[in-house]
Every structure is written in structure tokens, then in C-alpha cells.
Amino acid sequence: QTMESPKYELVIEAKDMGGMDVGLTGTATATILIDDKNDHAPEFTKKEFQATVKEGVTGVIVNLTVGDRDDPATGAWRAVYSIINGNPGQSFEIHTNPQTNEGMLSVVKPLDYEISAFHTLLIKVENEDPLIPDIAYGPSSTATVQITVEDVNEGPVFHPNPMAVTKQENIPVGSVVLTVNATDPDTLQHQTIRYSVYKDPAGWLEINPTNGTVGTTAVLDRESPFVHNNVYTALFLAIDSGNPPATGTGTLHITLEDVNDNVPSLYPTLAKVCDDAKDLRVVVLGASDKDLHPNTDPFKFELSKQSGPEKLWRINRLNNTHAQVILLQNLKKANYNIPISVTDSGKPPLTNTTELRLQVCTCKKSKMDCSATDALHISLTLILLSLLSLFCKSFA
């Protein structure tokens, strides 16, 4: 039986001399605390609850209410809810609201209208503390929850996602890369899908809006700054005909195979030497190539034909990527241009000819003076330009 108060205070009086009026009296107060036993099972306030939820959404969808005549805020009153039927996919969970003792029923895995538009759950409620032996949970300690799933226009889904293809760089403009495939989860709505390019960093691709065929609008270049680790990434959209339309995004990774389309470059392009140098090894040259093996080194280094009766320099290969320029004699203070060709190992190979500018300078007390050579070079250039200008004017 539920009591109005679990606490009682009794005043006890004791008298001597058999309770005669001439006797002495003493009093004491006794406080009695009564512990509540769990002698009432919790009961749902109604047998059936209703809930509506949009597909693809998670969160609390309904609060289930119960009554319990045991003392509030005790283990005999606090409710513990469990789903005992209708939740094979573990899409639902129920937890107790500690303030109200209500059961908060939540969707934890988004529901799919196209799979099932209705769900029926059987919920049981118990107390934290066990019931006393002669009390049992009855039919009122269970309730049914009817859940209606509302259809939502979902975005199309690409298959697979991400998509991956491998192509040679430099394939002809207009080449087909692949045909993407997206389907609409809203199978009951019979919608159409159109495709568009979402992100194409280098502007190399186009897509047929109807059939999803992706083609090239420019030359694919593996050496482009938009390509990372040989892979170019683009994003595409699939948009359905719903109201409002829904959109899905697909990622395409194009792995680009290398083609020998980059000539090797030479460095450095400037060297200085003293006009009385004892060590005539002028400079070590290196070559690099943006392509991949086997379209790069080993490089072949050659000097272009030297004019004049005597040869002034030669080039010696040091390894696959480096060579050394050596003077065959001391030269007069001046600027010299040495044309050097570098050829890669691609099939077919590519060659690049670069002029090494060699400044022969005067050196005194460990100081290199190249100013005169620069001035001489500039003066000669200006004289040549003036002569050319005069020649043009006379011709005119």
C-alpha cells in the first residue's frame, strides 16, 4: 500500500510510581522511516502509440508515457524500457528520460521508405528494482508503437563510387573516358536522371547529360599541377527530376600513364671561370625530366659543333644525370655561349639544346672580376642593334 509519508515521528512518555499523578514523567521521540518496496508494476498510459518519421532521418520520434504508484525517484519507480519485437535491423533504440520517466524512442539507423513504409514495435517497461515476489508485470507493462515512414526525394547514387579508370596521357581530344552509372533510390517515383560536371580542376572533361558518357575536351597531361601521384580527380553530379530535385555526387579517379612528352632540361645555365685558371673543369651540369622512367635518364650529353679551327671545350658524362664541361685551354676574358644538347631515353627520344653561358673573368687576390665581360657583351649587343637599325632604315 502506498503511504502518504514514508516518515513517522512518535512521542513516547514514561511515568514512575505506577503512573500516579505524584510520580515523575519523562518523554522521548522515536522517528520511523518506512522503506518502499516495489509492489507496483509500471503501466503504459495507453496500449498503442503512433509515430511518423521521414526516411533518412535519425533522432527521437515519440515519448512513451507510463504510470507507477511507487515512490518517485526510487529504483521501484524508475522505468527501464526495452524493444522486444519488430527491430531486427537494430534501427530503433529506446532510453529513459531521467526527469520524466518517459521512454524516448529513437531512430538510430535511417529508415528506407522503399524497403518498408511501416514498422510495428512491441515495447516492454520494467523497474530498476525487482518486484516483490507476489507482484508480476502484466499486459499493461507492454505497448505497441506504430511507425509510419514518409517518402523523401533521395539523391541518385553512383555505382561504383568512387569510379576508377586508367588512360594514357595525351589521348586524342574527344576520347571516351568511361560511362558513369547512377540509379535513383526512389524506385516508386519513376524519375529521370541528368548528369553534369561538378568539379573538373583542369577543365579536361565533359559529360553527356543523358547517358553519362565522359569524354575529353582537352589533352590530358600527367605532368599537370592538377594531377597528384599520377591521378586526376573529377566530380560529377546526377540530378533527378523530383520536386525539388535531389542530387548525388560521384568521384572519378583517372590514373594517367606516362608518355614521353617532356624534353629534358639542363642546369645551371651560367658558369664562371678565371682566365688563368689551373683547373679547367668549369662546371658540373645536371639534367632533369618531368616524365617517368623509362622516358627520363640515362641522359645523353653532347656538344653542338664548335666553330673555328680549334676546339675550345669538351663535355664528359659523369653518370646517368650529370656531365662535366672542361676547357681545353685558358680563354681570354669574354662571354662564350656553349650549345649543349641533352637527349632522354624515351622511345622515341626527345632532345633539348640549351646554351651554357660561360663567363671568363680576371681573378686577382681571390676576387673575380667579370664586369668587363658583361660590359663588352652589352656594348657589342648595342652596336649590333644600332647597325641593324641603320640597315633597316637605309633599306626602307
Largest sheet: 5 strands, mixed
Cα distance, first to last residue? Answer: 126 Å
Number of distinct helices: 1
| Shape field | elongated
Strand tally? 29
CATH architecture of the largest domain: Sandwich
**Could you name the CATH class of the largest domain?**
Mainly Beta
Order of helices and strands: EEEEEEEEEEEEEEEEEEEEEEEEEEEEEH
In terms of quaternary structure, the protein is single chain
Structural class: mainly beta
Number of discrete domains: 3
CATH superfamily of the largest domain: Cadherins
Strand content: 35-45%
**CATH topology of the largest domain, anyone?**
Immunoglobulin-like
State Rg: 46 Å
Quick check: average pLDDT?
A: 90
Helix content: under 10%
Provide the low-confidence segments as ranges: 373-387, 390-396
Summarize the structure in words.
One of its GO terms (biological process) is cell-cell adhesion mediated by cadherin. InterPro entries: Cadherin, Cadherin-like_dom, Cadherin-like_sf, Cadherin_CS. This is CAD13 protein. Its main location: membrane. Pfam families: Cadherin. By secondary structure, the protein is mainly β. The chain has three domains: 43-150, Cadherins (Immunoglobulin-like); 157-257, Sandwich (Immunoglobulin-like), CATH 2.60.40.60; 265-364, Immunoglobulin-like. It is built from one helix and 29 strands. It has one helix at 371-395; strands at 7-15, 25-33, 43-44, 48-54, 59-64, 66-67, 79-85, 92-96, 103-107, 118-127, 142-150, 157-158, 163-168, 176-179, 182-183, 193-199, 205-207, 213-216, 231-240, 247-257, 265-267, 270-274, 281-288, 300-303, 313-317, 322-327, 334-343, 351-364, 367-369. Strands 22, 24, 27, 28 and 29 form a five-stranded mixed sheet that branches. It has a four-stranded mixed sheet with strand order 4-11-10-7, with no helix packed on it. A four-stranded mixed sheet has the order 13-20-19-16, with no helix packed on it. A hairpin with a 5-residue loop joins β17 (205-207) and β18. It is elongated and about 150 Å long.
